[in-house]
Fold this sequence. Notes:
The structure holds 2 protein chains of 2 kinds. By secondary structure, chain A is α+β, with helices and mostly antiparallel strands. Chain A has 3 domains: 40-143 and 216-265 and 271-303, Aldehyde oxidase/xanthine dehydrogenase, a/b hammerhead (Aldehyde Oxidoreductase, domain 3), CATH 3.90.1170; 310-462 and 608-757, Aldehyde oxidase/xanthine dehydrogenase, molybdopterin binding domain (Aldehyde Oxidoreductase, domain 4), CATH 3.30.365.10; 464-604, 2-Layer Sandwich (Aldehyde Oxidoreductase, domain 4), CATH 3.30.365.10. Chain A is globular, with a radius of gyration of 27 Å. The two termini of chain A are 44 Å apart. Chain B is an alpha+beta fold. At the A-B interface, helix 1 and helix 18 of A face helix 2, helix 3, helix 4 and helix 5 of B.
Amino acid sequence: MSEPNNRRPYRVLGTTPLREDGVEKVMGQARFADDVFLPRMLHAAVVRSPHAHAKIRKISTHKATAMPGVFAVLTGSDFPTLEPTILSHSDASTTDDLKDISENCMARDRVLYDGHVVAAVAALSRHVAQQAAEAIDVEYEILAPILDIEEALNEETPALHEDFTPGQFVLQTKKASANASGFEMNIGEDQDAFSTAEVVVEKRYRTRCVHQGYIEPHAVTVQWGSDGIMTVWTCTQGHFAIREQLSIVLQHPLSKIKVIPTEVGGGFGGKDLIYVEPAAALLAKKTGCPVKMVMSRAETLRGTGPSPGAVINVRLASDKKGTLLAADLELLYEAGAYPGGPVGSAGLAATSRYKISNQTIRGVEVLLNKPKMKQYRAPGGVPVNFAVESTIDILASKVGIDPLDFRLKNAMAEGDRMVTGLPCPKIGGRELLEAVRDHSHYRTPLSGPRQGRGMAYALWFGAGKTSSVSMTVHGDGSVLLNVGTPDLSGTRLTLSMQAAEVLGIDVAEVSARVLDTDSIAFSYKTVASRTTHSTGIAVYQAANNALREMARRAAVYWDIEESSVAITRGSFSDLGNPSRCLSFFELAKLLEKLGGPITVYGNASPGSNGCQLAAHLVDVEVEVDTGKINLLRYTAFQDAGNAIHPDYVSGQMQGGAAQGVGWALNEAYFYSEDGKLLNTSLLDYRMPTAVDLPDIETVILETPNPNHPFGVRGVGEVPIMPPAGAIANALYNAAGIRMTELPMSPGTVLEKIKENID
Amino acid sequence: MARNHVTTTINGDPVEFLCDTEQTLLDVLRDELHLTGSKEGCASGDCGACSVTMDGRLVCACLVLAVETQGAEVETIEGMADGDRLHPLQQKFLDHAALQCGVCTPGFLVAAKSLLERNPDPTESEVRYWLAGNLCRCTGYDKIVRAVLDTAAEMRE
């Protein structure tokens, strides 16, 4: 890993301390959601539809109910009936219609995808619950499923829903046809940009559904007390989100729901929506016992929200010197069974790294008989980045310019107008592309035949939103930091580091916790690369509040005006008598006599977390007999703003790149002709192993984000975007074949190689 | 149906338990003995999150029936540290930031320990192939491979 390129005057930031929660994790003691065991606890299992689309005629539960060890059975009729409900507050946990979410948790009169839940049962053991679930008899009237985008858009295809609330994730869509809703963004006035341009390239791309692939399946335990207070233990990216969704779906007051976040075994955008939580809660209410529900891997793949497949049409125009003049994009994304997929965020990120004066971007999301699509790391960003970065390489080659020079020539810079119409904020795009150009990887010749080098470039926005923290300075000088954003990857440490930096103490003196919904003020989810940035701002505030309160106590101790106390990096002194000085630790020890320990708060709601930028460079070798693509060398470049913990930044870059490589080369949902998911195990849904990946070298640049006190940018999402485009471009340079579909699996590549020979 | 009585050794301690015939070793470790360090990621032997050793052999606990452990020696992640003293692999995983969410970590540690017992001087390629039965979705494996190689080097000294 390369060190960040400029040293700044920080004591803690930029170092690589060890995480406090790490010891429990390497010892197998950390408590994840499935590790919750309560007295009298029952186990739940669900019945899932084997059909992609069917009416439910009848559910017979008597056989299950009669089985020894079975305590309760639940069907859709046990759920409250909701009117369409959209949350409008700016920190809403979901922008989906909660009526849809309720029906996604348990079908009412119709099942809309293979794996849709139709009933649930609570029993003494998981095994008995599963047997009872199998004994529940459901009569279906099978309906014709809609399985692909073109079919859903065909005017003759019947509507999946009589009516629907158009999706509004990031961008509001409007109903466009029976099964689709969309948006359009335009900038530029030149109607003739395409007809007058010297070089125009148009290409159609197709990608398929992929899953986030977190290793820990969804799990929840619910206790519903006789006082009506519901306690929920679950692995989630947002426990306040789960509380809000449960409150509406079960029509239960927010004040009577307590959600306790456990450790989370990966989320990547897939763990902020309720699935089996309401059923577990209703079973707990019915039985008076705590109820635990753990999904199997097959259930996780069939029944939770993967990232949508897409069809993307890209048209780009440039002059003969290689200046981009116009872009026209059509993004058709699957929504799945209910609206609200990530087409809006895909549209925003489609071209935003390039300066293009005339642009039209149309996004459409399409309802069909697959699971309700969800966010997955840079939601919607991978398919469109693959499409645009492939087309950029084709265009550069037509113009006769090196693809890197082409990207440099057209790179968006501060003040340029983006497709949103807004000026681009401060970003280090040019610097990043120059870092690629100057890197030894770029300058080292390839070593054999059938090898090629390719790159892709990406920008992602992320989000700000609300974070709350509290901080206590104890009388022994130790500091407790409580936060409301779940820790998916080490953020307790990156937040403690920011606290220690402000307080002027060692990071080992700060102990951080993620508290439950009763114990800390509202915080938005750990999503959109926001926690180290946005919760970090709240931590910065709290730490400064703590210093101010300590200064006040010092003033009392010395009997001087508060304004006469100077705070300098972990020590307090009397301006009128500089020989009087207390270290943070010394003053903390006096707190007991000066009013007790100090507890302060921080709360931030930043508008964004600054743009994230990444460029990836990859060397591939293609096996012409099998179509297999081998990765020989991989370098990821990223602007982190300020790399708080450089190892964690590089870890995000490597992990994102690995997921992007899986998406590019292997991962896809395979459906039968009647809409059953065929690959429901991790053997058949094949994610990259240690053997499939090379070392992933990382180069971190730091262009400080003006909207964070330490210059932090979001880091986590953007590295998943470039791999597919970079590999496709490298493959073209290796074998002269242009892949327009993902995944670029050996079979599809081999087919293309054969086509090329014919 | 009567439950099976099994006598076995787990992390050096004699252990007796009752189990149903269809229960796997993973079910018993987690649900009966509350040794929850072994994780269930797939229950089909594809992810390695439940890796344990049985009579010195690396296995997925989800693919072993609990009754098969009669008389066997089982080692789990809970037996890896010596009290509070971490095994060198555990320490190196922390030093190299080789975990993010941490759910796959116990399985990787058990598998890596098993590798180093057989091959104290593995090449990078040997480490990658040995660990190919363990899935990690957070790290891209790079830091895990470094941590194992670094441990091997240190333990050889």
